[in-house]
Amino acid sequence: MVISRQLMAAYEPYVRSLEMLAGTVLNGRKPPIEEKDFAALLDGHPGSRLRDLIPLATRKASGAFFTGSTLASRAMDQIAHTIGPQSILLDPTCGVGDLLVAAARHLPVDVDLGVTITKWGRQIHGFDIFPEFVRAAKARLVLLASTTNGSSAHEPALNCPDTFPGLAVGDGIGATVLASRASHILLNPPYPRVPAPKGCAWGSGQVSQAAVFLDACLEAATPGARIVAILPDVLRTGSLYARWRAMVEARAGVDSVQVYGAFDAWADVDVFVLHLIVGSGNPTVNVAWWRPAEAAATGRVSEHFDVHVGPVVPHRHKGRGTWHPYVYASRLPAWEEFESDESGKRRFVGRTFVPPFVTVRRTSAPRDQRRAVGTIVNGKRPVAVENHLLVLVPRDSDLERCHQLLTVLRDQRTSDWLNERIRCRHLTVGALRELPWWSPPSEQ
Ligand SMILES: C[S@@+](CC[C@H](N)C(=O)[O-])C[C@H]1O[C@@H](n2cnc3c(N)ncnc32)[C@H](O)[C@@H]1O
To answer: Does residue 278 carry a pLDDT above 90?
Structure first.
């Protein structure tokens, strides 16, 4: 369920308090608030108020997560030198303005607060579907401007809602006219999955809204414009987004791909920061969407193993077909050899695997000490394997090869490599196929 008007009504008094403070500084007075509280208003405070008032699931459905100052300034650092008096900044999904605040810190300031705000107002543009967020963004930009100037009353006095006319309520995906004028597009879009737009060339079915937003920005932006995007890690590493990545590379120069990790302590998602220059795509350059240290590898796991997903989905596959030894994640001891002929059995119609082979638990988080936890499955009869396991079948059917793979999986370099390659909670067939075959594998 997205944020309802009723829930947003609970946030509105907080927005009003921001506007009152902004009104105070616009009238040349010092805000009646301690310095550290004032600083928090420009950092994570609006986000923490939203967390207090609106449940996580609702914020997730609306994609309402605000960028903290550490991540926002890290995203801006790389382009700070390109922001100047001629820049036009656009955040198509501006929330309460965190990315705009981080970028505006690099805009020129005038001695007079009113003049600064008026000039910034011509340069700063943004949209959000929630009016309260747009109002908060305006108020926070006024508060930021007041920290860069000696405060001075502006005649006639500016009224907070009349500042920053380029910030408006609206659908950022349709902000194409503005995007074509922007020198800098700052993007931390909503991440929920939505139906792929009609005629989408890189995906079908349900896709990340973040991917759709970046596509729309690339479509509308002018060559030379810079795009800074904070995006869910699945776009960087997921095999389903390979065509999306190719589309990005074809339409822009990829200046950098920075793995960041958890968005913040409360949002359950890993992100990366993408810096693009529109129109300067170079098909001959290999873009480093991931850059693990692979110097010590002699090849890839795929040269020795075929990798599959376990096909048994217990609630879907009813007990029909031939009886098979059956393995599932909680049944298998980590890093050991498991005799499947002695394990429990189930009926199954579908693909089975002849031992020896290695299973790896699909569920795996960057915070785990070992990302790819393996077990050797031995035995004589074809085994049914549950869906939470990846199955790695040695091409030479050799048990010794399976032991070598366990050593590779236990190697600290494997976890480091996977942390760079795939920060999502599920290991993929593609990531395990590409995993370097470390040589010589070092036991850690
Ligand atoms: C992840 S938040 C990021 C906000 C801000 N850019 C930041 O970095 O803090 C995404 C924002 O997009 C807004 N949003 C969702 N759908 C939108 C749409 N179609 N057009 C404009 N804004 C939208 C949400 O209300 C939310 O404030």
So the answer is: yes
- Cβ neighbours of residue 234 under 8 Å, at least 6 residues apart? 208, 240, 241, 424
**Bridge partners (DSSP) listed for residue 275:** 228, 256
Write the residue with the smallest CA distance to atom 4 of ligand 1: 95
Instruction: Check if the beta carbon of residue 355 is closer than 8 Å to that of residue 379.
Output: yes
Chain segment 203-251, per-residue pLDDT in tens: 999 999 999 999 999 999 999 999 999 999 999 988 889 999 999 999 9
Q: How far apart are CA 95 and CA 216, in angstroms?
A: 18
* Numbered ranges of CATH 3.40.50.12420 in the chain: 5-278
Give the CA count within 13 Å in the CB-facing half-sphere of 79. 31
Please give the distance, rounded to the nearest whole angstrom, from the Cα atom of residue 288 to the centre of ligand 1: 28
Probe ligand 1: pick from 2, 65, 91, 93, max atoms within 8 Å of CB?
A: 93
Question: Could you give the residue range(s) of every CATH 3.90.220.20 domain in the chain?
Answer: 297-438
Mean pLDDT of the chain: 90
Question: How much is the average pLDDT of 153-164?
Answer: 73
Tokens of 243: 């065509």
Q: Give DSSP secondary structure letters for 228-247.
A: EEEEEHHHHH-GGGHHHHHH
What backbone phi and psi angles, to 5 degrees, belong to 41?
Answer: -65, -30
Q: Is the pLDDT of residue 294 over 70?
A: no
Fold entry, domain 5-278: Rossmann fold (3.40.50)
pLDDT at 285: 67
Distance CA 144, CA 69 (A): 13
Give residue 335's identity as a one-letter amino acid code: W
The structure's pTM equals 0.77
Residues whose CB is less than 8 angstroms from the CB of residue 285 and which lie 6 or more positions away in sequence, other chains included: none
Nearby residues of 58 by Cβ (< 8 Å), 6 or more positions away: 1, 2, 3, 4, 7
**Strand order of the sheet with strand 322-327?**
345-348, 322-327, 384-385
Domain at 297-438, CATH from 3.90.220.20, 3.50.50.60, 3.40.50.2300, 3.40.50.11540: 3.90.220.20
Torsion-angle region of 63 (φ positive above 0: left; ψ -120 to 50: alpha; else: beta): left
For the chain, how big is the Rg over CA atoms in Å?
26
Yes or no: say if 140 and 38 are a contact pair by the CB < 8 Å rule: no
Residue nearest to atom 19 of ligand 1 (CA): 171
Residues touching ligand 1 (Cβ under 6 Å) are 62-67, 91, 93-95, 98-99, 127-130, 133, 171-173, 188-190
Cβ distance 208 to 232 under 8 Å?
yes
Torsion of CA 311, 313, 317, 319, to 10 degrees: 100
